[in-house]
């Protein structure tokens, strides 16, 4: 049973009654007449062959209130794209696949790069950004959800709960973030949120005071969740990070442009499991190693815009403060897991904290040494100002890929 705590910063929607999904969907069908709804699914081709996505598609095929599904497909050649068209064809909604590696979208991408407006590197951020552009181009959805394609425990009630706060015509929320416990196979998961983000935010508050931005981020129960819903007009004005800082970057953009009263979070699942990233201790370009670097840099960049100045000595102090807080949290998580009959490997948890602590210093060095770094993909409003017909041409390219010969 979920608690009913409200921390006063953003509204928290709880799962107090285990309301049946059919009841939520009945209302959402009514809401969709006033606020049409769509869904973005950023996907690698490899996920079509994984254990989760086919089940997700089966669940989505039962959702009665969705009018549009937009799939961003990465790392796919021509034959794989044709396979994807067939794979998703069982969805009854208006479904379009963005073949991001296809010649039509690559041509548009190169044009944007010539204007200095393209994404600097492939990845989830770039994928989501192009999907957002297509949603704006299609004009079919005024409320848009997004979630990952590797959720092993997916059921359509997750989406219903995620969309409800933004879709309800009496509510005034522009953005909703999903949260859940990360539990699978008798283990407590979610290491990057538990062992990096939470103690890092608290260490930053100790060093720089309870800044509104830090209090805001710390109010989210799962700031790194990949599940959120928003009004479609939000997509036009926000800048999306191209790296692993996507989720923190989106929350930062919302903090800049929206009041806390327009933002909320919702409990969408009793348990959640998806593909686990390796720690990749010896590979700074992969896994949790890369993720922790990008998240730390995203936080440093945002705090710099708030007037916080950093030095090498500051980052050394931050590392020490973070490390002590993280070790204390490991003990708390260990006790919580034990009481709930779950396992937690304290040795591997402390190894992860040691890696993250070192990466706080490394991220600080990268931040100080690269003041000209351009971490965000430009907003679609800026892109349209530079290339006014870009969305019209993107829409036509996607239609040709999905309906014609490729």
From TrEMBL:
Alphabetical keyword list: Transferase
Any GO MF annotation of the entry: transferase activity
Claim: Transferase is one of the keywords in the record: yes
InterPro entries, sorted: Nucleotide-diphossugar_trans
Gene3D superfamilies to which the protein is assigned, alphabetical: Spore Coat Polysaccharide Biosynthesis Protein SpsA, Chain A
Protein name (database record): Glycosyl transferase
Species this protein is from: Vreelandella rituensis
């Amino acid at each position: 049973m979920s608690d009913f705590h409200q921390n006063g910063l953003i509204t928290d929607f709880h799962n107090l009654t285990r309301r049946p999904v059919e009841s939520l969907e009945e209302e959402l069908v009514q809401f969709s007449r006033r606020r049409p709804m769509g869904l973005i699914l950023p996907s690698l081709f490899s996920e079509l062959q994984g254990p989760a996505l086919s089940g997700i598609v089966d669940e989505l095929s039962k959702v009665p209130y969705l009018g549009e599904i937009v799939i961003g497909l990465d790392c796919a050649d021509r034959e794989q794209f044709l396979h994807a068209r067939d794979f998703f064809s069982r969805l009854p909604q208006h479904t379009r696949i963005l073949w991001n590696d296809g010649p039509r979208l690559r041509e548009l991408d190169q044009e944007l790069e010539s204007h200095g407006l393209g994404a600097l590197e492939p990845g989830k951020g770039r994928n989501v950004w192009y999907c957002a552009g297509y949603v704006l181009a299609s004009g079919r959805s005024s409320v848009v959800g997004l979630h990952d394609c590797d959720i092993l425990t997916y059921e359509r009630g997750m989406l219903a709960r995620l969309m409800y706060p933004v879709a309800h015509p009496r509510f005034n929320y522009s953005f909703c973030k999903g949260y859940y416990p990360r539990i699978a196979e008798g283990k407590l998961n979610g290491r990057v949120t538990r062992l990096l983000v939470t103690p890092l935010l608290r260490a930053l508050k100790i060093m720089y005071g309870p800044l509104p931005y830090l209090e805001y981020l710390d109010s989210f129960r799962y700031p790194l969740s990949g599940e959120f819903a928003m009004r479609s007009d939000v997509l036009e004005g926000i800048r999306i990070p191209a790296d692993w800082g996507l989720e923190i970057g989106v929350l930062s953009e919302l903090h800049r442009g929206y009041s806390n009263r327009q933002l909320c979070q919702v409990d969408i699942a009793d348990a959640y499991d998806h593909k686990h990233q390796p720690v990749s201790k010896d590979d700074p370009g992969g896994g949790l190693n890369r993720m922790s670097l990008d998240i730390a840099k995203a936080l440093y960049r945002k705090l710099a815009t708030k007037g916080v100045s950093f030095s090498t000595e500051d980052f050394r102090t931050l590392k020490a403060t973070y490390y002590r807080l993280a070790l204390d949290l490991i003990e708390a998580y260990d006790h919580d897991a034990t009481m709930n009959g779950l396992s937690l490997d304290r040795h591997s948890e402390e190894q992860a904290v040691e890696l993250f602590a070192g990466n706080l210093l490394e991220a600080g060095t990268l931040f100080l040494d690269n003041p000209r770094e351009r971490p965000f993909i430009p907003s679609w409003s800026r892109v349209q100002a530079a290339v006014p017909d870009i969305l019209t041409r993107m829409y036509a390219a996607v239609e040709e890929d999905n309906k014609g010969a490729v």
